[in-house]
């Protein structure tokens, strides 16, 4: 009965979603508060039903119920329990249920924590959110039902893709989806604002926390996915410009632009049209990523499905929501005023520059991702667009943005003084320049781009420190006064500075490992040693090993520095018994922020093994920087001015919450 109950729970969720998508809008039109508040009840009920369906699907996996097609195709009795659970979303159908679960979770959060929103706005936002839920619930029930039965039930399952049998599957997809799907709230707020005609600074204040929350999860989700691919695939790379990787990176770029644009809208009531457009396009790119992963148009280790029929349905959903939102945007655009004016050299000007660069960068990634697909569809020609294209286009776009970032917080609103800002950043300029010269001295003949990259990374970190120093008047006021200012500094200011520093940390890791990593590919016999950037890697031999649902050959390597053992690595060549599919398990030793990375290749006739040894300087800074960005987002979100919801209105205005609001 578990599968049938789960299927029925999804049907109930669809019924609730249909009610939630229509009744509150009737209430908004009539000014009926009771009808509007059905959106809150509906959002909570929808989340409960989808949660029940998801929990029952997990139960079917845990019990190895192979009468369920989805369990049979993606599980096995010998699989460890943790991988049985994570296998729930390691496939197309189960991952869609997770997608909808997070969608309804965000709706429920708005229902619970949106009490300070105007009643009309909250009802409309939840109704729009439910439109998305209706589309995907219909998609699951009619094309991707995870509860279909097999009769008779097989005795054993086919097992999960070996690459997915890793703890990364437990962390990466849920966090990535929280970011992907979280931008649906920004989309719903934008469409609701266009419907109601209320687009002002208060709207920007309400939408910023939700955008920030989605951005935080997408940031750390992409980062964990990068590290997972880095150690699991055995390629030794942290980013491959894979089309599916790009599909998650594009919403991140526009989401970052949206965060900065909303600041201008909140502070100066400017960039209204642009901010609304960004909110629509960011979620549209999330839907595009969903299409690319599930349509079969891409061949990728990240892709879930190869069914073009399902892909066509998702494409229709993408076109309906994006096209409908843009059509509504075009209808309302004439009623929108841009707000206050500002000089090019100002805080607003710097944020506009930020938006232009991020949007252009997103456009470059979009073209590089979709051009091969479009070309193949037109004339059947297959080409690949990889790192050379993106390095030649995306990289140069980022250089002026990274150079400009520390100036932004130093400029005043409306009209800034560039010379004064440069003076405040003088120490940061000196520190960055010294760092660049140090790289030239430390690495004789270092590539020019590497020196520029390291200098920019140090510039970002030093600029963030200079911003805080300026705000608290460090060395310009008595130390107790600076400490008091630091304690009273808004958390959003700390979050902004920390986020910019996090970008610098990531850039430093990217530049250093790209420019200075070493790679050594050789055949090694037991007792052989190899040198890697001052480390001695000794191969002690390899032995067979039997795991719970796999067998592998595990190599043992001892890593020494100046004759002292600093670590041991055990890379393996693994074969999963049920599917017969092989995987490569890397052996990684971390020293400070750097790593020695060893992979074991095929056995040779003389008893040796092909071995690849990498030394990756400061590589862990790539992911440490993104964690710093996530923490920075959490600090900003904890600011009382940016908590989910807006400040409570005075009691005297409470009665006017449901009054019609004229279009601007």
Report on this structure.
It is a single chain. 61% of the residues lie in helices and 11% in strands. Strand 8 and strand 9 (594-603) form a beta hairpin. Helix 4 (38-62) packs antiparallel against helix 7 and helix 8 (119-143) crosses helix 9 (168-196). It has 22 helices and ten strands. The strands form two sheets. Strands 2, 3, 4, 5, 6 and 7 form a six-stranded antiparallel β-sheet that branches. The protein has a four-stranded antiparallel β-sheet with strand order 1-10-9-8. By secondary structure, it is α+β, with helices and mostly antiparallel strands. Mean pLDDT is 90; it is low at 644-664.
Give a topology summary:
Blueprint: H1 2-20, H2 23-30, H3 33-36, H4 38-62, H5 69-74, H6 81-86, H7 92-113, H8 119-143, H9 168-196, H10 201-232, H11 243-268, H12 272-294, H13 308-332, H14 347-379, H15 387-404, H16 418-424, H17 426-442, H18 448-471, H19 479-488, H20 491-516, E1 518-524, E2 529-532, E3 535-546, E4 550-561, E5 564-569, E6 572-576, E7 582-585, E8 587-591, E9 594-603, E10 609-616, H21 621-637, H22 651-654
Helix pairs in contact: 1-4, 1-8, 2-8, 4-7, 4-8, 7-8, 7-9, 8-9, 8-13, 9-10, 9-11, 9-12, 10-11, 10-21, 11-12, 11-14, 12-13, 14-15, 17-18, 18-20, 20-21
